[in-house]
Write a structure and sequence with these properties.
This protein folds into three domains: about 1-60; about 80-300, no CATH class; about 370-515, Serine Threonine Protein Phosphatase 5, Tetratricopeptide repeat, CATH 1.25.40. It is mainly alpha-helical. It has 23 helices and three strands. Strands 1-2-3 form a three-stranded antiparallel beta sheet. Helices cover about 70% and strands about 0% of the residues. It is a multi-pass membrane protein. This is ALBINO3-like protein 2, chloroplastic isoform X1. It comes from Salvia divinorum.
């Protein structure tokens, strides 16, 4: 019995200091055999504990304790691919390609939803206050962002997260699949040595020879094609100023990324290339589909990177008779469209900076309906931007007369139009030196009740700010302070203006007393 105890102790000693996992297992099995006959439970427990706790760095087995240290998502995906392979018996290259396509198809509805949300954001964002305070506005970032958020919620504008939603999902999925297949290749997963196709039969090997360069070249070429197609005629190329420069830099960066991708693909196993190639191919097919008008109509999406209308062509001297609109189906006369359609088209054309074309359409709309308030307002604003002040004030005052014809308007849209028309009419008159006529329009806004609609309310207080500024410029500071105090109850960011004006007003009073 003493001899048996010494043998057991020797086995435990060797097991603890052995660098071979297999020898450790052998001693455990031997110890288990001894325990089953002599039941020395304490000896067996210590033996098993010492064996399982020796450090991995002393092991000569590359896979020792690796399963417990695997990244859980990678381990889960490998298990799913194994189950798929066991259930179907298909070659590994088909398993990898089909799972890639299934993953991309699962993400595609999110991309469709993202495009729809971005369209709504594109329509609502220009009508919201900027999230960052304008220069010299006196507003803090916190107050300006709070105003932006309040107006965004009132307009039911989707979250700006939709700008990044597809990237947040696609990029992790791409690297998860890439890491999982790479790990299977490096670990010589069962079947990977013969699970490839054509010249890449062994998925555990790296690209070699002339044929080995086919997949790396195709993957790099697909990346470059995807960049060119996704940014072709993109709206990023038409944004002004610094944003346009940043868009160009971003495009060049993506194009230059082709070379690092090409180099990288020569240093990954062929199993990873079998995944990467169909993934890039699917991206190209997806972009081609999203540029196809028939597919976009089927998905209920707006046409990407294309204007709703083409430039307007004028022929002859009569805009009403000879204005044509070029569309994809051909040329059509503006006379065939309703005033509402003409106004909508003019707004889209103004978004592209084509003021003259938009003015032509608005004039046609007013020929059809001289009392179309929205057309009068937009035409007046556009003429004011072109510095045609007299003509702009004429159209804006016509809009005001139309709105006040049956008394003060009560509908939300008409109230908003009246506020905006009065603001622009004031500016048009004051730019002509007609200060009194301008004050008449601003005082009309001051006499109105505060609107309940959030957009109309914002425009209402904008009108009061313009009135206070105009009054301060003609040394009517007391009245200006009265309106600024009212505005400050709506937005405390204007308290800074009140302090500045009060200081100026006090100094003005002291100067007037000193020099009668």
């Amino acid at each position: 019995m003493r001899l048996s105890g010494r043998r057991c102790a020797l086995k435990r000693y060797l097991c603890y200091y052995s660098s071979s996992h297999s020898s450790c297992s052998l001693f455990i099995n031997s110890d288990r055999h001894y325990r089953s006959h002599y039941s020395p439970r304490q000896l067996y427990w210590r033996s098993s504990l010492s064996c399982s706790s020796f450090p991995q760095r002393f092991s000569t087995q590359s896979g020792a304790f690796e399963r417990g240290e695997q990244f859980l998502p990678v381990q889960t995906l490998i298990s799913l691919l194994d189950s798929y392979h066991d259930a179907t018996g298909l070659p590994w290259w088909i398993i990898i390609c089909s799972s890639t396509v299934a993953m991309r198809l699962a993400i595609f509805p999110l991309i469709v939803l993202q495009i729809k949300k971005l369209r709504i954001i594109g329509e609502l964002l220009p009508h919201l206050p900027p999230p960052i305070p304008p220069p010299l506005s006196g507003r803090s970032f916190r107050d300006q962002f709070a105003l932006f958020w309040k107006e965004k919620e009132a307009a039911e504008c989707p979250s700006v997260f939709w700008f990044f939603s597809s990237v947040v999902v696609q990029v992790p999925c791409f690297f998860l699949w890439l890491m999982s297949v790479r790990k299977m290749s490096l670990d010589h997963h069962p079947g990977f040595d013969t699970g490839g196709m054509l010249w890449s039969l062994n998925l555990t090997e790296y690209p070699q020879g002339a044929l080995g360069a086919v997949f790396p070249l195709c993957i790099a070429g697909l990346h470059f094609a995807n960049v060119q197609l996704s940014l072709r005629n993109s709206s990023l190329q038409h944004v002004p100023g610094t944003l346009k420069l940043l868009a160009k830099i971003y495009k060049v960066y993506l194009q230059l990324l082709t070379l690092p991708i090409l180099i990288t693909t020569f240093y990954v196993p062929q199993g990873s290339l079998i995944y990467w190639f169909p993934n890039s191919t699917f991206s190209l097919i997806q972009l081609l589909c999203l540029h196809n008008p028939n597919v976009l109509r089927y998905l209920g999406l707006p046409e990407m990177n294309a204007s709703a209308v083409a430039p307007v062509i004028q022929r002859g001297s009569s805009a009403a008779a000879d204005t044509l609109i070029r569309t994809k189906e051909g040329e059509m006369s503006a006379q065939t469209l309703s005033p509402d359609d003409l106004v909508s088209l003019s707004i889209e054309i103004l978004g592209g900076g084509q003021k003259d074309a938009a003015i032509a359409l608005l004039r046609v709309a007013l020929d059809k309906d001289p009392g179309h308030v929205r057309a009068l307002l937009i035409l007046g604003q556009t003429l004011l931007q072109k510095e045609h002040y007299a003509e702009a004030s004429e159209f804006l005052e016509k809009a005001i007369s139309k709105l006040l014809f049956a008394g003060n308007p009560t509908e939300v849209g008409e109230v908003d139009f009246l506020i905006l028309s009065s603001q622009w009419a004031c500016i048009a008159n004051m730019l002509q030196g007609k200060m009194e006529e301008g004050f008449v329009h601003l005082e009309r806004i001051a006499q109105m009740n505060e609107p309940q609609d959030s957009n109309s309310k914002a425009h209402y207080y904008d009108g009061l700010i313009i009135l206070a500024t105009a009054l301060a410029n003609v040394n009517r500071r007391a009245e200006a302070l009265q309106y600024l105090h009212k505005v400050a109850t709506y937005n405390t960011a204007y308290n800074g203006y009140i302090e500045q004006l009060e200081v100026g007003f006090a100094s003005h009073l002291s100067d007037s007393k000193r020099y009668p």
